[in-house]
Amino acid sequence: MAVIGLKQLANMCRQIGVALRAGLDIRKVWEHEASRGSQGHQGRAEQVLDHINAGDTLAHAMRSVSPYFPALTCDLVEVGETAGRLEEVFEKLADHYDHMFKLRRQFYGDIAWPALQLGMATLIIGGMIWAFSALPAEPVPILGLVGTRGLIIYATLVGGVLGSLVTLGLAVTKGWLGTGPITLINKIPVVGNCIKTMAIARFSWTFSMALNAGVDARKSMKLALRSTHNRYFNSRRGQIDVDIQQGRSFHAALRESGVFPKDFLDTFETAEISGTQSESLDQLAVYYQEKAETAAKVLTRVASTLIYIVTVGIIVILIFKLFYSLYLNPINEILNDL
Which among 60, 151, 229, 252 has most CB atoms closer than 10 A? Predict the structure, then answer.
């Protein structure tokens, strides 16, 4: 089932937040939402409006079209309704999804050109496999393949590799392989640091908002951990919840989980002792968002470099292969005949 895009979600949250702060009734807000955007969006907005008119809460109405709206959005909308701060929640959500969209666009934009070069190199190899079979002399195999049959084998192999990578990515993100792979990824120096930094930024922001809205400690922690969108952190949710239920402090429960960095925990502990959790968490969220942007740039450079290395490697191998097949091998054959 389709889900709303990040940019569209950010714009929707901002418009709803502004409308609610201006005093517009929630029904009017969703009537307007049901009249704009794609047909699919309008249809889901109409379903939300129908639920509101039937007396349901906005959070329940938005969950009724799941998974179109993210679970985090629905959870925090429920928090905003409970605390009477719905307009603030939507404005914060807009900032959050704008930030996520910016990071994603930056990553895809920076790796687009290296990825295009790799794709072109892959296509060129396929073309050479087929074209070199038509040479007047003996056909020159590329990677051991030649002609139409070789091209079919090559295309099958490339498709298989791409399919395997996509399947592996889905398996890791969806948790089909358990928490082992994502735990391992989080421990990789550059990649893991980037992923964990983004997760902690979301955790800080959500936890602060939930506490400010008057949500109880256990539910605030559950919402914050779920907002990380990271199974490495979520795998400790049960343990952390038990610790809090037993009366342990937030920072002690988080420290015991073993997934949060020491500098974050030290700041969190100081804030909890001094009674400035909300303010400190807001500052931590901003700090880790800035770190996430820096980490995303590093991750992008790493990904681009890896793609360039693969592309250059393919080209170098081809050059040596052609040099041997078209130059050295004929010379060797001539010398052998002599």
Answer: 151
